[in-house]
Protein backbone atom coordinates (compact mmCIF):
# COMPACT_ATOMS: atom_id res chain seq x y z
CA UNK A 1 0.00 0.00 0.00
CA UNK A 2 1.54 3.32 -1.10
CA UNK A 3 2.37 6.04 1.50
CA UNK A 4 1.85 9.72 0.73
CA UNK A 5 4.01 12.47 2.23
CA UNK A 6 3.18 16.12 2.42
CA UNK A 7 6.01 18.06 0.75
CA UNK A 8 5.22 21.20 2.79
CA UNK A 9 6.39 19.49 5.94
CA UNK A 10 9.54 18.07 4.42
CA UNK A 11 12.95 19.65 4.83
CA UNK A 12 16.33 19.22 3.28
CA UNK A 13 19.14 17.56 5.13
CA UNK A 14 21.02 19.96 7.41
CA UNK A 15 18.06 22.28 7.84
CA UNK A 16 16.03 22.69 11.00
CA UNK A 17 12.37 21.73 10.63
CA UNK A 18 10.02 24.71 10.71
CA UNK A 19 8.25 25.27 14.02
CA UNK A 20 4.81 23.95 14.39
CA UNK A 21 2.04 26.49 14.93
CA UNK A 22 0.42 26.62 18.32
CA UNK A 23 -2.60 24.46 18.65
CA UNK A 24 -6.04 25.82 19.40
CA UNK A 25 -5.90 24.25 22.84
CA UNK A 26 -2.66 26.09 23.66
CA UNK A 27 -4.06 29.43 22.49
CA UNK A 28 -7.25 28.86 24.51
CA UNK A 29 -5.26 27.96 27.61
CA UNK A 30 -3.22 31.20 27.21
CA UNK A 31 0.09 29.39 26.97
CA UNK A 32 2.93 31.42 25.46
CA UNK A 33 4.59 30.38 22.29
CA UNK A 34 8.06 28.95 23.02
CA UNK A 35 10.95 31.50 22.85
CA UNK A 36 12.46 29.66 19.90
CA UNK A 37 9.26 30.18 17.86
CA UNK A 38 9.27 34.07 18.05
CA UNK A 39 11.65 37.02 18.68
CA UNK A 40 12.11 37.90 22.39
CA UNK A 41 10.34 41.15 23.31
CA UNK A 42 12.64 43.86 24.74
CA UNK A 43 12.01 47.08 26.58
CA UNK A 44 12.29 50.12 24.33
CA UNK A 45 13.90 52.17 27.16
CA UNK A 46 16.61 49.93 28.62
CA UNK A 47 16.67 46.95 26.29
CA UNK A 48 15.91 44.38 28.99
CA UNK A 49 13.99 41.23 27.97
CA UNK A 50 10.31 41.47 28.90
CA UNK A 51 9.33 38.40 30.89
CA UNK A 52 5.62 38.78 30.30
CA UNK A 53 4.85 41.04 33.25
CA UNK A 54 3.01 44.36 33.22
CA UNK A 55 6.21 46.43 33.54
CA UNK A 56 9.86 46.09 32.54
CA UNK A 57 11.76 44.24 35.28
CA UNK A 58 14.75 46.66 34.95
CA UNK A 59 13.45 50.21 34.44
CA UNK A 60 9.74 49.84 35.25
CA UNK A 61 8.40 50.99 31.85
CA UNK A 62 4.85 49.64 31.26
CA UNK A 63 4.85 46.62 29.00
CA UNK A 64 2.03 48.10 26.93
CA UNK A 65 4.30 50.95 25.81
CA UNK A 66 7.11 48.57 24.98
CA UNK A 67 4.80 46.27 22.99
CA UNK A 68 3.26 49.18 21.09
CA UNK A 69 6.63 50.75 20.15
CA UNK A 70 8.52 49.54 17.09
CA UNK A 71 11.30 47.02 17.66
CA UNK A 72 14.63 48.85 17.49
CA UNK A 73 18.00 47.40 18.17
CA UNK A 74 19.15 48.49 21.65
CA UNK A 75 22.71 49.89 21.84
CA UNK A 76 23.88 50.84 25.34
CA UNK A 77 25.36 54.32 25.70
CA UNK A 78 29.17 54.43 26.12
CA UNK A 79 30.43 55.25 29.63
CA UNK A 80 31.29 58.94 30.19
CA UNK A 81 34.94 59.84 29.68
CA UNK A 82 36.87 60.71 32.80
CA UNK A 83 38.11 64.29 32.93
CA UNK A 84 41.87 64.72 32.87
CA UNK A 85 42.19 65.96 36.46
CA UNK A 86 45.95 65.44 36.55
CA UNK A 87 46.48 67.69 33.53
CA UNK A 88 44.41 70.44 35.11
CA UNK A 89 46.39 70.21 38.38
CA UNK A 90 49.73 70.36 36.53
CA UNK A 91 48.62 73.40 34.55
CA UNK A 92 47.51 75.20 37.72
CA UNK A 93 50.81 74.42 39.49
CA UNK A 94 52.81 75.66 36.50
CA UNK A 95 50.88 78.94 36.47
CA UNK A 96 51.37 79.45 40.22
CA UNK A 97 55.11 78.67 40.02
CA UNK A 98 55.55 81.08 37.14
CA UNK A 99 53.79 83.83 39.08
CA UNK A 100 56.01 83.24 42.13
CA UNK A 101 59.21 83.36 40.05
CA UNK A 102 58.07 86.53 38.32
CA UNK A 103 57.22 88.19 41.63
CA UNK A 104 60.60 87.20 43.14
CA UNK A 105 62.48 88.60 40.17
CA UNK A 106 60.61 91.89 40.36
CA UNK A 107 61.28 92.21 44.09
CA UNK A 108 64.99 91.51 43.62
CA UNK A 109 65.15 94.16 40.89
CA UNK A 110 63.36 96.73 43.05
CA UNK A 111 65.65 96.01 46.03
CA UNK A 112 68.73 96.41 43.84
CA UNK A 113 67.47 99.72 42.48
CA UNK A 114 66.65 100.94 45.99
CA UNK A 115 70.11 100.05 47.27
CA UNK A 116 71.80 101.81 44.38
CA UNK A 117 69.63 104.85 44.99
CA UNK A 118 70.72 105.24 48.63
CA UNK A 119 72.62 108.49 49.17
CA UNK A 120 76.26 108.16 50.13
CA UNK A 121 77.09 108.76 53.76
CA UNK A 122 79.02 111.86 54.66
CA UNK A 123 81.13 113.08 57.56
CA UNK A 124 83.07 110.84 59.88
CA UNK A 125 81.23 107.64 58.91
CA UNK A 126 82.16 108.03 55.24
CA UNK A 127 85.77 108.76 56.17
CA UNK A 128 85.96 105.69 58.43
CA UNK A 129 84.65 103.45 55.66
CA UNK A 130 87.40 104.51 53.25
CA UNK A 131 89.93 104.68 56.06
CA UNK A 132 89.75 100.89 56.39
CA UNK A 133 91.14 100.56 52.86
CA UNK A 134 93.26 103.71 52.52
CA UNK A 135 94.19 104.72 56.05
CA UNK A 136 96.92 107.16 54.96
CA UNK A 137 95.33 110.36 53.66
CA UNK A 138 97.72 113.30 53.30
CA UNK A 139 94.77 115.70 53.19
CA UNK A 140 93.64 114.67 56.65
CA UNK A 141 94.41 117.38 59.21
CA UNK A 142 96.66 116.22 62.02
CA UNK A 143 95.00 115.95 65.41
CA UNK A 144 95.73 114.07 68.60
CA UNK A 145 92.12 114.15 69.87
CA UNK A 146 88.81 112.57 68.91
CA UNK A 147 85.44 112.70 70.59
CA UNK A 148 86.50 109.87 72.87
CA UNK A 149 90.28 109.85 73.38
CA UNK A 150 93.34 112.10 73.50
CA UNK A 151 96.72 110.63 72.51
CA UNK A 152 99.90 112.52 73.44
CA UNK A 153 103.46 111.68 72.51
CA UNK A 154 105.84 111.81 75.47
CA UNK A 155 108.97 111.15 73.43
CA UNK A 156 110.67 108.69 71.04
CA UNK A 157 113.87 106.67 71.05
CA UNK A 158 115.64 104.49 68.46
CA UNK A 159 117.39 101.17 68.82
CA UNK A 160 119.15 98.54 66.70
CA UNK A 161 117.45 95.88 68.72
CA UNK A 162 118.64 93.21 71.10
CA UNK A 163 120.25 89.84 70.77
CA UNK A 164 116.86 88.18 70.44
CA UNK A 165 115.28 90.94 68.31
CA UNK A 166 117.93 92.42 66.02
CA UNK A 167 116.67 95.03 63.54
CA UNK A 168 116.73 93.97 59.87
CA UNK A 169 119.35 95.55 57.63
CA UNK A 170 118.47 99.15 56.75
CA UNK A 171 115.88 99.43 59.52
CA UNK A 172 115.78 100.29 63.18
CA UNK A 173 113.32 100.11 66.04
CA UNK A 174 111.42 103.25 67.05
CA UNK A 175 110.10 103.24 70.63
CA UNK A 176 107.24 105.72 71.15
CA UNK A 177 106.08 106.79 74.65
CA UNK A 178 102.36 107.70 74.83
CA UNK A 179 99.68 108.93 77.19
CA UNK A 180 96.04 108.09 76.42
CA UNK A 181 93.21 109.98 78.18
CA UNK A 182 89.51 109.11 78.14
CA UNK A 183 87.46 112.18 77.10
CA UNK A 184 84.12 110.39 77.00
CA UNK A 185 81.49 110.07 79.74
CA UNK A 186 81.60 106.29 79.57
CA UNK A 187 84.25 103.58 79.75
CA UNK A 188 86.52 103.44 76.70
CA UNK A 189 88.88 100.67 75.60
CA UNK A 190 92.40 101.01 74.21
CA UNK A 191 94.69 98.51 72.48
CA UNK A 192 98.28 98.79 71.23
CA UNK A 193 97.28 96.71 68.19
CA UNK A 194 95.20 99.65 66.87
CA UNK A 195 98.27 101.88 66.38
CA UNK A 196 100.34 102.07 63.17
CA UNK A 197 103.41 104.04 62.10
CA UNK A 198 103.60 105.61 58.65
CA UNK A 199 106.91 106.63 56.99
CA UNK A 200 107.55 109.10 54.19
CA UNK A 201 106.86 106.39 51.57
CA UNK A 202 103.30 105.92 52.87
CA UNK A 203 104.19 102.53 54.31
CA UNK A 204 102.10 101.64 57.38
CA UNK A 205 103.57 99.17 59.87
CA UNK A 206 101.84 97.76 62.99
CA UNK A 207 103.24 97.86 66.49
CA UNK A 208 105.46 94.95 67.53
CA UNK A 209 105.88 92.88 70.67
CA UNK A 210 109.55 92.76 71.62
CA UNK A 211 111.69 92.69 74.75
CA UNK A 212 112.73 96.31 74.14
CA UNK A 213 109.85 97.64 76.30
CA UNK A 214 108.70 94.65 78.30
CA UNK A 215 108.26 96.69 81.46
CA UNK A 216 106.57 99.71 79.82
CA UNK A 217 104.55 98.17 76.96
CA UNK A 218 101.15 99.81 76.47
CA UNK A 219 99.21 96.55 75.97
CA UNK A 220 95.45 96.89 76.15
CA UNK A 221 92.77 97.76 78.69
CA UNK A 222 89.89 100.14 79.52
CA UNK A 223 89.69 103.64 80.91
CA UNK A 224 87.10 105.26 83.15
CA UNK A 225 85.93 108.80 82.28
CA UNK A 226 88.88 111.20 82.66
CA UNK A 227 91.17 108.21 83.27
CA UNK A 228 94.53 107.92 81.49
CA UNK A 229 97.31 105.40 80.89
CA UNK A 230 100.94 105.71 79.81
CA UNK A 231 103.00 103.15 77.92
CA UNK A 232 105.31 102.49 74.99
CA UNK A 233 104.90 101.16 71.45
CA UNK A 234 107.65 99.64 69.26
CA UNK A 235 107.75 100.01 65.44
CA UNK A 236 110.20 99.22 62.63
CA UNK A 237 111.21 102.18 60.44
CA UNK A 238 113.96 102.99 57.90
CA UNK A 239 117.22 104.02 59.50
CA UNK A 240 117.32 107.78 60.09
CA UNK A 241 113.71 108.32 58.98
CA UNK A 242 112.36 111.52 60.54
CA UNK A 243 109.07 112.03 58.70
CA UNK A 244 107.05 109.60 60.82
CA UNK A 245 103.28 109.85 61.53
CA UNK A 246 101.47 107.93 64.26
CA UNK A 247 97.99 106.62 63.40
CA UNK A 248 95.19 105.34 65.62
CA UNK A 249 92.18 103.71 63.96
CA UNK A 250 89.90 101.54 66.08
CA UNK A 251 86.62 102.16 64.17
CA UNK A 252 85.69 104.75 66.83
CA UNK A 253 88.68 107.09 66.82
CA UNK A 254 90.64 108.47 63.87
CA UNK A 255 93.77 110.18 65.17
CA UNK A 256 97.04 110.94 63.42
CA UNK A 257 99.89 113.31 64.16
CA UNK A 258 103.64 113.51 63.36
CA UNK A 259 106.28 112.32 65.77
CA UNK A 260 109.11 114.74 66.62
From TrEMBL:
Alphabetic keyword roster: Membrane, Signal, Transmembrane, Transmembrane helix
Domain of life: Bacteria
Chain intervals for the UniProt region annotation (Disordered): 1-36
InterPro entries per record: DUF4352, Immunoprotect_excell_Ig-like
Segments forming domain DUF4352: 157-248
Membrane-spanning segments: 88-114
Protein's UniProt name: DUF4352 domain-containing protein
Source organism of the structure: Ligaoa zhengdingensis
Amino acid sequence: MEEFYDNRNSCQPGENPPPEPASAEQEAAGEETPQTEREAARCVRCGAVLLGGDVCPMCGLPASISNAAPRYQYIPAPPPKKSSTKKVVLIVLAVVLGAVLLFSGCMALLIGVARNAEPSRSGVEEFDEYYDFLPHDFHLEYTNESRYLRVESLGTSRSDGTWDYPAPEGKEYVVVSLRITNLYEDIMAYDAANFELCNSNGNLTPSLETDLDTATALGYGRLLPDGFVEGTLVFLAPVGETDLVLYLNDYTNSICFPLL
